[in-house]
Amino acid sequence: MFSIDTVTGFICRNCDQKDGRCYDYQVRFLCPRRFCVQAKCWTQWFDRDNPSGTGDWETLASLQFSYPEQICAAPLQIQGQTTTGLPASASGNVLSAYDTTVGLICKNSEQQRGLKCHDFQVRFLCPPDFCRPKDCYTDWFDRDDPSATGDWETLFALRAEYPGLICPNPLQIQVQTINGYSVAATGNIITTADVVNGFICQNSAQPSGLCHDYKVRFVCPMDFCQHKVCWTAWYDRDNPSGTGDWELLSDLKKLHPNEICETPLHIDVRTVGSNLPLTVTGQVLHIYSPTEGFACRNEDQTGRGCRDYKVRFGCPCKYIVDTD
Question: What is the DSSP letter of 166?
Fold first, then answer.
């Protein structure tokens, strides 16, 4: 054996053997346990170049430019193979570069006469943290149909009807029809589609006079999806017989000390008795905030005063025992 160690690896040279030929060997390595228990974080396979010009250039810099945020800044390992699945080491090509700093380079000019480079693809091993999801998706929501003025999937209405299921500050909004078609495929003119207001398609803005029926979902920080929200009890401290119905957080904390977390994440408001969400009542709201509470003023309503409302707050589960 010409070499057999943990620095170089294994080498058997035919010229050192009495019969002039080595056996075909396989190798394995003993690694620290922490290496084996960690999930391997491999990127996808990348093939950005073909060997029709000077060769096949799958350089790390060009791949990071072509595929932003899909390759870590400092890969730990590289694997190369032909697009047909043959390992780079068995391709027969001479490689000018094959490492985690440069990437893979095969130059046609450096191959044996008459040969050209194979078409290669590469992937990289990254630190485990690189593969851990950084964002998450909510469920798809479809609270409205376009039978009236249009399809209104506003963030306010969705929060009222699906309390605790949308993060306080969404990162992105995704929209498609209930049949799975993209907005661009529908040809509809969209009034609003953002993480502040949500989604609005108005029938009056469409040449056909009618919007498609849409559903939306939001991209949230990963910690939102990893931590369950627990709800307080329902509170109803005020009646609308005076100026309105005032269910402010500061007042409720005084009446119910140590029952509500310091900074609630969500608020859920329903009518007393009928348990209707805010969007059904059609009333004008004065305050609607998980950190302030809820208020409805009689003077803001037309025809009648405020309904009688109850509220509850969504808190981190470490603070409160879920009452549902």
Answer: S
For 62, counting Cβ atoms within 10 Å of its Cβ (0-12 exposed, 13-18 middle, 19+ buried), the class is middle
Cα–Cα distance, 9 to 89 (Å, whole number): 14
Rounded CA-CA distance 31/180 in Å is: 47
H helix intervals, the chain: 33-37, 60-66, 128-131, 155-161, 183-186, 222-226, 249-255, 278-281
Q: What is the pLDDT of residues 292-322, one digit of tens each?
A: 999 999 999 987 899 999 999 999 886 654 4
Beta strands in the chain (DSSP E): 3-5, 9-11, 41-42, 55-59, 77-82, 97-99, 103-107, 120-126, 135-137, 150-154, 172-177, 192-194, 198-202, 214-221, 229-231, 244-248, 266-271, 287-289, 293-297, 309-316
For residue range 278-300, list pLDDT tens digits in order: 888 989 999 999 999 999 999 99
pLDDT value at 38 more than 70: no
Which neighbouring-strand residues pair with 214?
177
Which of 237, 256, 258 minimizes the C-alpha distance to 246?
Answer: 237
Tokens for 290, please give them. 């998980």
CA distance 175 to 199: 8
What's the predicted TM-score (pTM) here?
0.53
**Closest by CA position to 109, among listed 120, 93, 121:** 93
Distance CA 183, CA 77 (A): 40
